């Protein structure tokens, strides 16, 4: 049966979302229809809304959690009532990418921010699906290779954050940078992803973790996640890379850029020690080229990127949920606001103005 439900539709770029009644078709072969219980707003939702021109109308949202409502033909892994997190990176377990330990991407990932293959319509128009998930809706339909079944005791209004931001930052430190015990690290940008990166550095045993941000209000929060030192570039009249080099006898072992600004990516690279420093690009952007001088790498630095923290999604997300339930990773501390789906534009505004870390929207009652 087609379900009629509420969703926040982005009809066009740079405009407020509109709460509409949409139609969600039943799941087709290998698909799962999910009732979304909670979702949070991530910077990537804003990026698509404010920076992309194509890919509208769409239902945004990709950091969510819910309950399986029905399954299509050929689905054996899920049944109605299962608690799940939809994933913007799939894991089919069959392609050469899924079989390789070198990547967490699948050959079957949608390459587009908003895919035309959608199960949504509104007012007679097709509404695109955002990164295969679209969690700003009471119901969504997702391919089974992009759904993680999680512990049935997990609180969905908390673990929804593990669908993107926390795994992205935490994994960038532990999986991509491979931070070592006793090392020094610098994290640039203290949004949810940066704070999760700080938490990852601490979990990996780093002895000094520099939290770098131009907003000093964020430093207290960073301390909660394990930061030991705070550097505000605005307090210095020389480049931040020089400041960090002087504080660490030549540069940090690992740096992570968690903002998505190309000039800061370069600063992060130049902040790590030339002989063996590793700098990881975590912040998402596709608007400009980055640059550096070859000599920055020739002496032995490594510059690499990280998508979803290097976690193979269907394996990594349930494990992170378990680690949260076992109190090995923090999640609740990221949540600064709780709202309902009807207030999604307020939540977007808070994020635009950097007044929140994560706002969780309740979408459907459990």
From TrEMBL:
The keyword NAD applies. It holds the Pfam family ADH_N. GO terms for molecular function: S-(hydroxymethyl)glutathione dehydrogenase [NAD(P)+] activity; zinc ion binding. One of its GO terms (cellular component) is cytosol. One of its GO terms (biological process) is formaldehyde catabolic process. Its cofactor is Zn(2+). Residues 15-361 form the Enoyl reductase (ER) domain. Keywords: Metal-binding, NAD, Oxidoreductase, Zinc. Belongs to the zinc-containing alcohol dehydrogenase family. This is Alcohol dehydrogenase 1-like. It comes from Seriola lalandi dorsalis. The lineage of its organism: Eukaryota, Metazoa, Chordata, Craniata, Vertebrata.
